[in-house]
Structure formats: structure tokens, C-alpha cells
TrEMBL record:
It holds the Pfam family BPD_transp_1. It is a multi-pass membrane protein. The keyword NADP does not apply. This is ABC transporter permease. The keyword Nucleotide-binding does not apply. It comes from Profundibacter amoris.
């Protein structure tokens, strides 16, 4: 345990030292400019103090980001638009919905590709080609098209109001973000599942043929269990992709809600500490989601007898 923690803490400590040094260097220009206007000289201790406590630094010091995270998560109501919990939930809802869509679509496409040669020859090249289009270019088009046809809110305002008594904030503008998240998450699942479903060797497949097993029986008894490790690896990549897609879509849409919107408004007003806090919140969310998939993976593979 200690052997694995010490290298990690060493790397973290090195990053902190480099970060604090970089914040002094990058924020020093403003301090020297202020001192020159006042006709004063700045000592090193004053330089360090001023560069680590600016309201709008070029590079915030780590403790400033931690303070911002504390203020915007613990000291704010979760319903406040200044709360990172509120914005994180908006992004998380789009990420999960897009991840579910993308994973379902990816698994279905992989099954079709493995069992149908026409789909293998036609769909796979298009799936690969789809990932060559930059998401930053296609996201605004998806937002505009879905806004034009009125397909933006999940369930619609009337249905949501009838169900909850009001329209929850996370349902507003959810669908374009979920579509973009699904766009980034489906491809890793397709590739991973195709490789996993094709992982049984000829000897295993021939053995089932000698039992006169149908394609469906071969799929459920051999191909699907063999693909499970590949599926979980793909899900981890797909979840990270879905989160990136949700944040990019929030950068492309009207900056109202979500971690992407929080970063965008921070850039409008030069609030670099706010941008970095939202970035760290997104990183923590991604690590948590991938960690949850990892725990489900370990439990599932242990139950299937694939790991000890």
C-alpha cells in the first residue's frame, strides 16, 4: 500500500511546486506594473504574497482553486446558479443520458457488424469516419438544428410539469447535449464490442457447432461473456467521451447552466479561478464515474470467474 502511495504523493508534490512557481512567474507582471505606477520596489516575499492572492490571476495558485471549490460547493445552496453542485448536476444528467444512448447504440451496431457481413463492410467505415469530424465543429450545428425543430427539452415542458409540477432545470436543453455526448461515447463501445465478440477462437466456435448450437446460443453462451472485459474497458473510455461531449455542447449553447457554461462565463469576465474550479469539478466527476464503472467491472468479472 505504502509502495503505491509514495510515488503518487511524490508526483503530486512535484506538480504543486511547479504550479506555485509558475503562478509567481505568470502573475508577476501585474504586480510589477502596480509597483512601477506607485514608484515602489517589490521584495520577493511581497511578490509571492501578491501573486498568490490576486482576484483575477493569469494562473491561480492551487489554494485559490480549493477555496473557490469550497465556496461554490459547501457555502452555496445546491439550487443556486453560483453552486458547482447545481452546474455539475446539469452536466452529469446530459452525460449519463448521452452515455446510455451511445452505449446502447454501440452495442447494437457491434452485434450487427459481427453477425452481418454487409454491415461489417458498410457501417464500420462510416463509424470510423464519423470520429474524424471535430466535435467542436459539429456541436453548434446539432444545437442549432435541434433548437430549430424544438427538440431540446427532455420530456417537454408540458409532460415534465404534469409529472413533477414544474420543469426541472436539468431537463431544459438536455437533448442536444445528450446527442453530442452519445456521439463521442458510441464509437469506443462499437470498437471494443466488435473486438470482444470476435475474441473466441475457432476451436471454441467449432466446439459449439458440434453441439449444434444456434447463432443465438453461441452469442449468449460464448461471444457475449467473452466480450465482457472489452465492454467495460470501452465503457470507461465512452464515459469520459460523453462528459467531454456534454461540456463542449454547453460551450456551444447559451451559457446558462452546466460546467461548460460555468467555464464560458468565467472566460467572459476574466474569472480564471472560476474556470479552474469548474475544470477540477469536471475532472473529479470523470474520475468518479470511471471509478464506479471499474468497481462494477471487478464485481462482474469476479462473479463470472474471469478474475480472482
Amino acid at each position: 500500500m505504502n509502495k503505491s502511495i509514495i510515488p503518487v504523493l511524490t508526483v503530486v508534490a512535484m506538480i504543486m511546486v511547479i504550479w506555485y512557481a509558475a503562478s509567481i512567474w505568470m502573475n508577476s507582471k501585474w504586480v510589477y506594473d502596480q509597483a512601477a505606477r506607485a514608484g515602489e520596489e517589490v521584495s520577493f516575499s511581497e511578490l509571492v504574497k501578491d501573486t498568490w492572492s490576486q482576484d483575477r490571476p493569469v494562473l491561480p495558485a492551487p489554494h485559490q482553486i480549493v477555496q473557490e471549490l469550497y465556496k461554490s460547493t459547501v457555502l452555496k445552496k445546491v439550487t443556486s446558479k453560483r453552486s458547482l453542485v447545481f452546474h455539475g448536476w446539469i452536466t452529469l444528467s446530459a452525460t449519463l443520458l448521452g452515455f446510455i444512448f451511445g452505449t446502447g447504440m454501440g452495442i447494437l451496431l457491434a452485434i450487427g457488424i459481427v453477425h452481418n457481413r454487409a454491415m461489417d463492410m458498410s457501417v464500420m467505415p462510416w463509424a470510423i469516419a464519423s470520429q474524424t469530424v471535430p466535435i467542436i465543429a459539429i456541436a453548434p450545428m446539432i444545437v442549432v438544428v435541434m433548437s430549430t425543430i424544438g427538440a431540446t427539452d427532455f420530456l417537454g415542458k408540458g409532460a415534465a410539469t404534469a409529472l413533477f409540477g414544474y420543469q426541472p432545470a436539468f431537463m431544459q436543453g438536455l437533448l442536444p447535449k445528450a446527442v453530442i455526448a452519445a456521439y463521442l461515447s458510441f464509437f469506443p463501445v462499437v470498437v471494443g464490442m466488435v473486438k470482444g465478440l470476435r475474441s473466441p477462437d475457432n476451436m471454441q466456435l467449432d466446439l459449439l457447432k458440434t453441439y449444434n448450437a444456434s447463432k443465438a446460443r453461441t452469442f449468449w453462451s460464448l461471444r457475449l461473456p467473452s466480450s465482457t472485459p472489452y465492454l467495460f474497458t470501452s465503457l470507461k473510455i465512452g464515459m469520459a467521451g460523453a462528459l467531454v461531449g456534454a461540456i463542449v455542447s454547453e460551450l456551444s449553447a447559451s451559457p446558462l447552466r452546466g460546467l461548460g457554461a460555468r467555464m464560458l462565463t468565467g472566460s467572459y469576465y476574466g474569472q480564471t479561478i472560476q474556470i479552474w474550479a469548474a475544470l477540477f469539478a469536471a475532472a473529479a466527476m470523470a474520475a468518479t464515474l470511471v471509478g464506479i464503472i471499474g468497481m462494477i467491472e471487478r464485481y462482474s468479472l469476479q462473479r463470472m470467474g474471469m478474475v480472482k
